[in-house]
């Protein structure tokens, strides 16, 4: 049993974004799954260890690291990523570049959860104080890569991203929730 319970699904505010390909960043153009941000998904009493315990007990993703977000725009071609803010706040950019007219700039803070589909570029724009996340990948997914939009990456990774399955359930709520809703 997890020592942390997410806020009720009925109270969850969620933002969903489809971001077209930009330069060498595929973003959400290759699969039907949006970038999702669950706002205030966890109560403010969370800690990194209680988040890790909760996510592990749900069994959809496996916590892999604790860190901030890289300032370099990057994406993963081999896995979808789930990020949980466990401390502080930040301004993030999704879409591969701050010059992308279709980018999403999001202010996130402790308790927010982001579901980042493979191919979606992301980077830290501004740490607003002690920003830290727990980063997670799907159970059994193996290794993740780090692509930075170099020439040739988009074409090389296109097939890998297209063939990826989606998360087996919602990382926080398992059999229901936003991830399950977009899968149906």
Automatic annotation (TrEMBL):
SUPFAM superfamilies: RmlC-like cupins. Residues 74-127 form the Cupin type-1 domain. It comes from the Eukaryota. Pfam families: Cupin_1. This is Cupin domain-containing protein. It comes from Kwoniella bestiolae CBS 10118. The lineage of its organism: Eukaryota, Fungi, Dikarya, Basidiomycota, Agaricomycotina.
């Amino acid at each position: 049993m997890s020592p942390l319970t997410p806020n009720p699904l009925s109270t969850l505010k969620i933002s969903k974004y489809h971001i077209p390909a930009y330069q060498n960043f595929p973003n959400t153009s290759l699969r039907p799954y949006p970038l999702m941000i669950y706002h205030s998904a966890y109560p403010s009493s969370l800690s990194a260890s209680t988040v890790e315990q909760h996510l592990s007990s749900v069994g959809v993703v496996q916590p892999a690291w604790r860190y901030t977000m890289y300032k370099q725009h990057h994406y993963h071609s081999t896995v979808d990523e789930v990020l949980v803010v466990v401390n502080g706040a930040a301004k993030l950019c999704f879409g591969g570049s701050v010059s992308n007219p279709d980018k999403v700039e999001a202010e996130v803070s402790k308790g927010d959860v982001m579901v980042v589909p493979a191919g979606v570029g992301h980077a830290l724009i501004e740490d607003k104080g002690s920003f830290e996340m727990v980063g997670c990948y799907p159970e059994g997914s193996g290794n993740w890569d780090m692509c930075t939009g170099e020439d040739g990456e988009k074409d090389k990774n296109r097939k890998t991203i297209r063939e990826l399955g989606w998360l087996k359930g919602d990382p926080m709520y398992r059999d229901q929730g936003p991830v399950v809703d977009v899968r149906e």
